[in-house]
Amino acid sequence: MPQLIAGPIFSFLISSTAVATTLAGPLATALGYAVFAGGLYLASSVFSPEQPKVPKPDDGSYNLKQSVPSLAYVLGTAKKGSDYVFLEEKGGKAHHIMVWAGHRIHRFVQHYLHDEKATLNAEGGVTSPGNYDKDGVSFVHIKTRQGLNAETAYSDVVTAFPTIWNNNCRGDGLASVYMRVATVDQKDHLDVYPNGMPEHSAVGDGALLYDPRKDSTQGGSGSHRTNNPSTWEFSTNLALMRLWHLCHPVGGKMAYENMHLPDWANAANVCDQNVTNRSGATEKRYHGGFWFRASNDPIEVGRIMDEAAELVVYERADGKIGVHAGEFVTPDVRLTAESIYSIRVDKNKRRANTVLGVRGRYVNTAKDYITEDAAIYGDPYAVVDDNTERTRTFENAAIQSHNHCQRKQKLTFVRANARRVSVAADYTADGVRDIPYRRFVTVHYPSRGLAEAVVEITSSVTIDLRNMRISFSGILVDSSLYAFNAATEEGEPGESVEPLPDEGVPTPTGFVPTIQTEVVSGGATAAFINATWTFVDDTLTYELEYDRTSGSTGVQSAFSEAGATQVRSGYLVDGEEYRVRLRAWGGGTKSEWTDYVLLTATADPVAPAPVTAVSVDVSTPGQAEFGWTAPNSSNYFACRIYINSVNNLGTATLVATEYGPPSATDLRVVTSLAAGTYYGWLVAINPSGIAGTAVATGAYVVT
Fold first, then answer.
1. Of the given ranges (75-79, 389-393, 403-407, 533-537), which has the lowest mean pLDDT?
2. Measured distance CA(437)–CA(323) in Å, rounded
3. 413 contact partners, CB below 8 Å, separation of at least 6
4. Closest CA to 293 of 484, 461, 45, 82
5. Which of 336, 382, 411, 571 is 20 to 30 A off residue 277, Cα-Cα?
6. Are strands 357-364 and 391-395 parallel, antiparallel or unpaired?
7. Predicted structure pTM score
8. Which residue stretches of 321-462 are H helix?
9. Given a cut of 70, is residue 310 above it in pLDDT?
10. Distance between CA atoms of 626 and 611, rounded to whole angstroms?
11. Distances (CA, A) of 652 to 624, 625, 645, 646
């Protein structure tokens, strides 16, 4: 198999980041692992090298290209990129083969290119977005495989690369995507591929799951069998995902025979219960989806599902693995003062620990599976005596419903503020030995304010056989723990806004070019163009184009830094007129040009002082000799001589320009003058042609 190609054009590395999980309730999940696996999972996570964290949903937005990727597993419906196993080019076509999941999946639901939804025709050609389809020709084709036990090789790749990819390269058991990208004419490249090589991602329905409710050999009704995955079906039921994970090599590595399936069937039924959301629609209580890698810590992966579905996994007295479903169960174990050795009640009313509100985050499937904020549960701005805002954040990668997230936020809020209890009881008392297999127990201890109080166990249960005691900690709850009125408690989620179609790179606005100057070597000044515009986005760069209106030097360009709002040109020819315009660049494409602006280069805008000692000698017929003293100005460059037959400088004619140094006495003879009365003006200028105050000679007569 060819090695991965990840060159500078195509490579795009996504790093897995941690999924922040907050288990405010059934902390006995960790206990379940420690009990039924002898603590091996917990020990391995402590003494083995640190394992990568479970990816967030957003981490799978694009293709993940790396030399040896760990297999990805998808449970429920999720959006993610793929791992490259083949990328070669031949005949102007790039052939991509990518593994979306390391197992059989139910189906692909939606393909994306650069996070834009793609529409395919019957041959797999991309017809939308429209830039990939030009004049009815699709330049990008996509085909898929679901990952059956015996798959079929992609024939296009076999035909193009028979020496390295043949019909035996089937990808058995791997859900994969084949994408063929064709070359286009250079002039059309940025129109067809405005963002470069397409980046593929997809929404898919993931693994098939075993459901004990559909197994007639386990008291259910149906053809599901634990030893025949081909009989399983796709589901978004979180309890079924947890059961699959416990019995899979990337999870608990246990056998279905070790599972107490009636418990799991009940948990699946609880997950399938209908609940009403704020809009009045019906949805399932605990359904969702997410993806992870084989290299992720199985305890963390399991915790995500346990937290999302309110599951508590535990080992039963018969050695099988059971599960407490996400529902309230009336306790059948009752502890009284006679059977309790010690009890500690923490009212949990310290101001520093009070949680006023819970901020939740969930995966919004209506917005292309992005993670976004849910409505805040509670009032984080409520006035306490110190006016301090105290909140807790809840986030779970498997939750894909705003109502589901809000129900979990309420539970987080209730558990964070609940009274806490620690109990040490007599191990020989009636029913006490069942505590390790219960989620809720009743504690009756009136002297400590506990009258038939219900305690949810949130810690490991410790059994001390030397002293015949059993100890645990928990929180005080009531039977309404899971009650939720969506109409009044769910809050209003953010609007699901459909992204606007791509309109290309916007034409710059607020374009203002000006001539500016700076001192260069030798103390001289030079002119340049400084252009500014209205900021749009950090990713855009801008091209300033300028050339002389005379066309004598050709077009020149200057480019800005990304995100900048100004750019300067090179030095200009002093006194020349230039035409200037601007356009933006982003993602390899360009905007339209702005309109031209005409500017004249002026290196020195400061006028020199006027000339002095002005005189006119007309003793010689037909000519006038002008005399003056140049001003003591360092930027004095020359003196212009204007004459007119009337006393009006505005209509006077420039007849001569005499160059000279500052403070020098100078003269200039103007010849070929007809006899008559004239008026003259002498004007000092600097090197940029900026004129000083005109000095009149008064009337003089030429003979």
1. 389-393
2. 9
3. 355, 357, 358, 377, 378, 392
4. 82
5. 382
6. parallel
7. 0.67
8. 402-417
9. yes
10. 12
11. 16, 17, 8, 8
- The listed range with the strongest mean pLDDT (30-44, 46-60, 321-335, 496-510) is 321-335
Beta bridge partners of 77: 205
**DSSP labels for 144-180?**
EE---SS----HHHHHH-TTT--TT---TT-EEEEEE
**CA–CA separation, 440 and 334 (whole Å):** 10
CA end-to-end span of the chain, whole Å? Answer: 103
Sign, CA dihedral 354-410-30-474, equals: positive
Q: What single string gives the DSSP state of each residue in 559-586?
A: EPPTT-SEEE--PPPTT-EEEEEEEEEE
Give the pLDDT confidence score for residue 500 in this predicted structure. 65
> Environment class of residue 354 by beta-carbon count within 10 Å: exposed (0-12), middle (13-18) or buried (19+)?
middle
CA distance 288 to 307: 12
Tell me where in the chain the CATH 2.60.40.10 domain(s) lie.
Answer: 512-600, 612-702
CB atoms within 10 A of CB 427: 18
Q: Are 639 and 631 in contact (CB under 8 A)?
A: no
Q: At what angle do helices 40-47 and 298-309 cross, to 10 degrees?
A: 130
> Residue 183, exposed/middle/buried by CB under 10 A (0-12, 13-18, 19+)?
middle
The CA distance from 304 to 102, in Å, is 20
Burial-class residue 703 by CB neighbours within 10 Å (0-12, 13-18, 19+).
Answer: exposed
- Among 20, 39, 18, residue whose Cα is nearest residue 30: 39
Q: How far apart (Å, rounded) are the C-alpha atoms in residues 699 and 677?
A: 7
Please name the fold of domain 612-702: Immunoglobulin-like (2.60.40)
The H or E element spanning position 245 is helix 238-246
Q: What are phi and psi of 456, to 5 degrees?
A: -90, 120
* Joined tokens for residue 341: 């050795």
Amino acid at 219: G
pLDDT at 45 over 90: no
Q: How sure is the predictor about 440, in pLDDT bands with cuts at 50, 70 and 90?
A: very high
* Amino acid making up residue 205: D
Q: Write phi, then psi, for 445 (nearest 5 degrees).
A: -145, 75
**Residue in 693, 678, 675, 689 with CA at minimum distance from that of residue 628:** 693
pLDDT of 504 higher than 90: no
Return d(Cα 695, Cα 266) in angstroms, integer. Answer: 106
Contact predicate 356/378, CB 8 Å: yes
Q: Name the CATH superfamily housing domain 512-600.
A: Immunoglobulins (2.60.40.10)
| DSSP-derived pairing of the beta strands 450-457 and 469-477 | antiparallel
What is the Cβ-side half-sphere exposure of residue 453, based on CA atoms within 13 angstroms? 24
- Reduce the DSSP state of residue 215 to 3 states and report it: strand
- Give the SS3 label for residue 380: coil
Q: Which range (225-229, 346-350, 610-614) has the least confidence?
A: 346-350
- Residue 625 belongs to what H/E stretch? strand 624-629
* 3-class secondary-structure state, position 299: helix
67 DSSP 8-state letter: S
Sign (positive or negative) of CA dihedral 337, 339, 340, 345: negative
* Per-residue tokens: 20: 């922040």
